Structures are given as C-alpha cells and as structure tokens.
Amino acid sequence: MFTGIITLQAKILELKKSGTNLQFTLSADLPKEIGVNDSIAHDGVCLTLIQRRGRTYKVEAIQETLKISTLSEKNVGDVLNLEVPLKMNQYLHGHIVQGHVDGKIKLQKIITNEGSHNLRFGFQKKAIPFILHKGSICINGVSLTVSKVNYNKRYFEVSIIPHTWTKTNLSKLTLQEKANVEYDLMLKYLHQMQKINIKN
C-alpha cells in the first residue's frame, strides 16, 4: 500500500527483455531497509525488487503490467517517480493507493498559472464513475486532487503546486504523452457494489 507522496526518483540504467517481461535496472537512494522481495511503486506501478546492490537495483514487469502502463514506453535515462511501501505508524498525507494502475491517460493541455500548473487529461467513457470533482486521483504515482472535470468533453484537470512540480516527473510530461492513472479505491469499490446490486 502507498499514499501517492513522492519523495524519491529513480533513473533507468538498463532495459532487458526476459521473454515477454521487461527487466529494469535503476539507480536511486532507497532506504537501507528496502531489499529483495520488497515492493516499490514506479510511476504508480507496484513492482517487486529482485536484486539490490547499493544504489542500483532491479525490478521486472510482466506482460500485463507493460500492456496497461507506460513502463513499456520508457527508455534508458528516463526518470521515474518512486514511493516505498506505507508503514502503518506514519501519517497518511495523500490517499490510499494500491500501485495497481488502471490504465493510461493522455495529457491534453498544460496551463501555467502564477505559482502552480494545471494539467488537463482526457479519459474514456468507462472512467466517468471514478473521476469526481475534488476527489483523489493518482497520476504517475502522485496523489492529486481533481480540480476540474468535464464529463461531456471527457477531460479533467489537476493542479500541481511548485514543490510537486519540481520533485516529480509530472513537469517533464509533454502534450499527448501518456501517464499512468490509478483511480480512487473507494470509488472503484462503490461502483463494483452498485453493479452487483443491479445484477441481483
């Protein structure tokens, strides 16, 4: 489990195919207690460490993960947002995030304001139940609040404060580039319960 608060970033050093899987070798200042078998969110995707040597470590993404996320589009030198697992005795600064990406969304517009940036993303019709004005959403592993939503034109906006802008890779997104999205867990459960009730 995670909260979508990014405190680390990792640089991709090597990409290696392993059957239909893709193995990533990365460099980051991970906490000393993080090791093999531990989970880390990479741009919002929960991956298991399979090797660690100092600052260098390896993770492997399976075909399903590559299909649903942007990890298949990454190159050597790219920087990923990182989040280590949540400890039960720490503050919940963002919102509950599983690291189970729901899909990819495309950046439509960047709006620069005095002291902040708004990012506008398009979404598919099936995502309507999971996008709520002032609700939580996780983009590239970053916990954000939906500041504007237009269901007819199918886009929403998030407002990025300067600290988040400089400490995450959201500032490196370009127009029409895709980002990973994980919708709010509560909204997904409520939607599923409603579907079950309708069927019954």
Q: Can you tell me about this structure?
A:
- With 200 residues, the chain is mostly beta strands.
- The protein folds into two domains: 8-83, Elongation Factor Tu (Ef-tu), domain 3, CATH 2.40.30.20; 103-199, Elongation Factor Tu (Ef-tu), domain 3, CATH 2.40.30.20.
- The protein contains three helices and twelve strands; from the N terminus they run E-E-E-E-E-H-E-E-E-E-E-E-H-E-H.
- The protein has helices at 63-68, 162-167, 185-199, and strands at 8-18, 21-27, 39-42, 45-53, 56-61, 79-83, 103-113, 116-122, 136-139, 142-150, 155-160, 178-183.
- The strands form two sheets. Strands 1-2-5-4-3-6 form a six-stranded antiparallel barrel. Strands 7-8-11-10-9-12 form a six-stranded antiparallel β-barrel.
- A hairpin with a 2-residue loop joins strand 1 and strand 2.
- The longest helix has 15 residues, at 185-199.
- It is globular, with a radius of gyration of 17 Å.
